[in-house]
Predict the structure.
Amino acid sequence: MPKPSIVVAGGGYAGMAALAAFQRRNSADVTLVDPSPVHQLIPELPTALREGGSVGQHTMPFAELLKDTGVSWRQDAVRRVLAAEKRVILHSGGELVFDWLLMCVGSTTRWPSVPGLRNHAYPFRTAVDAQALRDRLAHNDGLMVVVLGGGLTGVEVAGELAARHRVRVLEAAPRVLPEVGPGLSRYADRVLRQKGVAILAPAQVKAVEASRLLMDGGDAISYDVLVWTGGIAPPDVDWAGVDMDDHGYPVPDEWGQVAPSVFVAGDAYIVRRRGEIVPQTAQLAEEAGTFVAHTVLARIRDGRPGPPFDPHFKGLLVALDSHRGVGWVMRRGLAVKGYSARALKGLVFSQYRSRLGASFREASTDD
Ligand SMILES: Cc1cc2nc3c(=O)[nH]c(=O)nc-3n(C[C@H](O)[C@H](O)[C@H](O)COP(=O)(O)OP(=O)(O)OC[C@H]3O[C@@H](n4cnc5c(N)ncnc54)[C@H](O)[C@@H]3O)c2cc1C
């Protein structure tokens, strides 16, 4: 019998976890489609902004990771999913047929309809975004950088830039880091202010001009560089034969399946636990990628999936600079702050790198 063909679209946290799981068994022809030549360590990208940092330090080339693993890699992007026909149309105009498709294409930057925002602000979602911002700030200390959004990404970006620039964070909610409890949020606020970051919360931007923001109350705020970190949107893919929710995400069952033979994992997979949406994180993406891959393997073997996806939420850690952070760990939410939180976050990063490298090295010697 010919091996089933599996297409994994997107080699991020979810896609690489899925590939590692498929690869260990070597029971299918597996193709990765990704427009980027590198696996992007997105949660590490804010640290690329510090002096001496580089975006390249936070990426891993697919050519090296997948060497000798039998996984084919195609540098392209899925533009359209034709679920019923088991085909994907690629940006290049080519197409791929599949027996199984895993859509692990992540998310995109959410751009609200604030006039001028998209023209003037630097987004911060991918390695390309991080490089563009780094290039803009290079050799230019002391710039007035306004970070729109005081959530996880905005706080990390502000914390990194504060050493060399004048930084202001504008957050629509009444406090920075609305994702964590008020105590941790206050700690983050205090640390950022000590570092010279000005925080305005709540703050609503009405319009953006080339070098100033027009605020809801009528004030204007000047900037040299504007960074937008105000949230994520669904991937830019056309889904035919897939039910979509009101926010533009495919509707999954409890196994991440969105159509016969089509699964989602990572940011593109909206996971609910007791009715609540589980925050889209790298950790959840990795777990979902592994889970969905194992579900597909089970279906290939005997058609029966295991129990539904039940993520083990391990926590959330936010870096405030190179030595301080905040967050909480474990399912019940143990609050951590300061040096321990930052050290833990560093440990999570380095463990991920070694785990990823090791999983493909093991794979290539398994067969
Ligand atoms: C600045 C920042 C900091 C963060 N910090 C943390 C953190 O500390 N902890 C945490 O857990 N989470 C963090 N997150 C969230 C985390 O990065 C995401 O939840 C995670 O990357 C999602 O994984 P993914 O595999 O779904 O997508 P991604 O990791 O984004 O990977 C998607 C992949 O799909 C590819 N792709 C895109 N479109 C297509 C297409 N059409 N066809 C084929 N391939 C495509 C992309 O090139 C990319 O390789 C952070 C996010 C940001 C932006």
User: Anything to note?
Assistant: The chain is about 30% helix and 25% strand. The domain at 5-109+232-314+349-366 is CATH 3.50.50.100 (FAD/NAD(P)-binding domain). The pocket of flavin-adenine dinucleotide is lined by residues 9-15, 33-36, 40, 42-43, 45-46, 77-78, 104-106, 124-125, 152-153, 235, 237, 266-267, 280-283, 285, 317 (CB under 6 Å).
